[in-house]
Each structure stands twice: as structure tokens, then as C-alpha cells.
Amino acid sequence: MQSLFLGAASHPVEAVLDALPYTIFLFFVPMHFQTELALLSLNGIWTFHSHGCLETKMWPNLTADYHAMHHIMHRYNYGNYTFLMDWLFGTLRHPNSIVEEAKSE
Predict the structure, then answer these.
(1) Whole-angstrom distance, CA of residue 98 vs CA of residue 43
(2) How far apart are CA 4 and CA 80, in angstroms?
(3) CA-CA distance, 30 to 4, in Å (whole number)?
(4) Which GO CC annotations does the UniProt entry carry (predicted)?
(5) What is the C-alpha separation between 39 and 102, in angstroms, rounded?
(6) Would you place residue 55 in the very low, low, confident or very high pLDDT band (cuts 50, 70, 90)?
(7) C-beta neighbour count of 88 within 10 angstroms
(8) Three-state SS at 61
(9) Looking at residue 70, what is its pLDDT?
(10) At what angle do helices 33-50 and 64-73 cross, to 10 degrees?
(11) What's the N-to-C CA distance of the chain in angstroms?
(12) pLDDT digits over 4-35, tens only?
């Protein structure tokens, strides 16, 4: 079952590795501390949104119902914010497709 807190439930090493790109990015694109804080806050809000069981229709944004497929199947819907890369590389799956795939196996 999905929970709002699944996004924060990770191993400490994984959490550091997740934050590393944001830190490295600052060396190439310097920005004000408050801007960085705002971006990290928005990312946290998005993490809660994508794990919160909210079935919102925000196409092309990746929503909780699609992200749940990622946690169930572990081979689809890798995108963090949008469907674009999953669509381009063939890893996009609709939430209802899990039932159809189970019937065909």
C-alpha cells in the first residue's frame, strides 16, 4: 500500500545518493541559497504527491497511480516528474495494465 511517507523511507546511503546530483549541480550552476532551498522544498512536495495515493489528472506529469506501478512492477514508470522518457523508451505503463498483464501470463 502506498503512503505519503514512502518517499522518505529509504536507506541513508540512498538518501545521500539521491541528494548528490543537487549538490553537484550547484558547482556548475550557482544559485542563491533561498532558490536552492525553494527547489529542494518543491521536490519534497512532489515526492509526497507522487506517493500519496492521489489520482490526479495532470498529464504529462507522473502521478501517484502511475508511480505506484513503478513500486509494484519495478520495471516501469521510472520518470520522476513526467511520462516523457518512459514513453520514449517504452517503459511507460498505465496503472490498469497490471491486471491485463497478469491475465496474459
Answers:
(1) 28
(2) 16
(3) 31
(4) membrane
(5) 39
(6) low
(7) 9
(8) strand
(9) 77
(10) 70
(11) 23
(12) 555 556 677 877 777 788 788 888 888 888 98
Instruction: Tell me which residue has cell 489520482.
Output: 55
Q: How many angstroms separate the CA atoms of 17 and 34, rounded?
A: 22
CB 62, CB 83: distance < 8 Å: yes
Neighbours of 101 (CB within 10 A): 11
Which triple of cell numbers denotes residue 93? 505503463
**Weakest-pLDDT range from 33-37, 42-46, 87-91:** 42-46
Grid coordinates 521536490 are at which residue? 43
Instruction: Supply 56's cell numbers.
Output: 490526479
Q: Give the whole-angstrom CA distance, residue 26 versus residue 24.
A: 5
What is the residue whose three cell numbers read 498505465? Answer: 94
In the numeric block, which cell numbers belong to residue 44? Answer: 519534497
CB-CB contact of 86 with 76 (8 Å): yes
What distance in Å separates the CA atoms of residue 82 and residue 33, rounded to the nearest whole number?
26
